[in-house]
Amino acid sequence: MGRVMDKILINAAMLLAIAWLGGCASMSSEECVNSDWVAIGYEDGSRGYTTDKFGSRRKACAKHGVTADFKAYQEGRGEGLVEFCQPSRGYNLGVSGGAYYGVCDVAMEEEFLDAYRVGLQLHSLRSNVNDSNSRIYSKEAELKRTKEKIRDMQAELIRET
Known about the structure:
elongated, mainly alpha, 7 helices
């Protein structure tokens, strides 16, 4: 485990550069050759990504004749998922309205999902409040326009008499 963490810390800057410069699906030949697949897997796992992310990277690297290391990726992703699958992360994901893709191990998933559901419920309640406030503001604006029309009509009636 220490070896993996050391690799992650050493290669964090490179990983950020890869993500910033190339995005997920378009990796250069140099990025493919120099990638630390353990660190990439860790990052994906810690974000709750499915292995579909690996698939897009694998395809990009295959175009450059480079084979992505799935075993190393899975090793890092497994450790990243331990970080992701914490109840606090589940809650935060729910509060932000994020989707959960069933990536947590059964042993960790129950607590994660309990927290996720609480966060999702709060997100839903906040959305309902925001929607209600929008409708109230809309009706208030409509009422204001109607009152202005009534005043204009009253003023017109007074001028005609």
